[in-house]
Design brief:
Elements: E1 8-12, H1 14-32, E2 36-43, E3 48-49, E4 58-59, E5 65-66, E6 81-82, H2 91-98, E7 103-109, H3 114-119, E8 124-126, E9 132-137, H4 142-158, E10 163-167, H5 189-196, H6 201-209, H7 214-230, H8 237-250, H9 252-275, E11 281-284, H10 302-308, E12 312-315, H11 321-335, E13 341-345, H12 358-367, E14 370-375, H13 385-407
Parallel strand pairs: 1-2, 1-14, 2-7, 5-6, 7-10, 10-11, 12-13, 13-14
Antiparallel strand pairs: 2-5, 3-4, 8-9
Length: about 400
Amino acid sequence: MAERRPYRSIYSYAWDLADEGAGAFGDRIAATGANSVSLAAAYHAGKFIRPHGRSGKVYFPEDGTVYFRHDPSAYQRIQPLPNPLLADRDPLADLARQLPDLERYGWVVCFHNTPLGRLHPDLVSRNCYGDPYWYSLNPAHPEAREYVVALCRDLTMHYDLSGIRLETPGWLPFEHGYHHEFALIRMDGWTKLLLGLDFSEATVTLAAVDGIDVLHVQKRVQAAIDMFMASDIAFTEAQAADWIASDLIADPDFMAFLRWRCKLVAQVVQEIRDVVPAGADVRVIPSVQRPSARGWIEGSDLRLLANACDGLEICAYERSAADVHADIHHVRRQTGPDARISAIMRPTYPDLANGAEVQQAARILARHGVDGLAYYNDGHMRAGYVHAARTAFQAFDESLDDLLMEND
């Protein structure tokens, strides 16, 4: 592939490319001013509205499948589940052949995979009661970890990609959006944190090697949840945040366990970086929770992750440019001035005043050292998003040019 251009990308799905064809798809991407496509190469289920879909307006992707032709010999016990559309097409190869001027990035959902969890129940995360979270493969389990690393190596060894973007590199939070997820107890951040923690055998064993008393933490967590479930108490999110802070200070083992999780997730990302070709840009989406500071709930430490690969790709999914400013300020404070950071925005409802503040947000990101910009997601947005995306790319580039002139 030719020398990599500045990262200006549009996140996209293979089924949208197949539905519209490369011509219409490529024309719209080009009209935004983007020079690349970040295509889902391994993805989960959903129920998606497709405003400019041709074959239909509501789409249910098949859960936990891959959208590239994998090499079975590259894997051990866990094999990728190929999406049915691969019988007729190879989306990444189609992009390379039909839209050669666009660079290609593989967007990889890592440990979020319900079908593989159901097929391999020993590999999933389990709460303090031992209940399985089928949607969350456990990054502490060596075979789950081996699968994700092999997936990224296989993808980048067999396709000409400028890089990959890693989503869900750690544990998924308790609140997942699972089918008919339901409770008649008012849940809060403290309770959801405790219920989301993984105490599977693999995690307890591996953490013990590093001197973490996970069984003590598990007993404390279970006792806290038992007391909460048996009571009639309900409290605000502000109070929940205070409870979390209080527990972290009061129980050193709890704090050590959470820090250990962050170190392990960073190690997984480092293993991926080590097996991916050196010329491919590997960045991690640390969290899709807002703000980015909440990523530690999933085991995402911004500084550790930035150092483990080629940088971060943060989700600037905020209601206003002011919120984007606050978030990137925190990310930069955590990672330091030299960390490479790119960002994803949604230039439409419900973010950035329904898209009205996307240019302002782009300028803010540029002035905080963000070196690349992408938009999520072509198939989800009305086709008119093109104008907002193009003008924000322009604002971003102008701000970068202004910074260069100021530093000369």
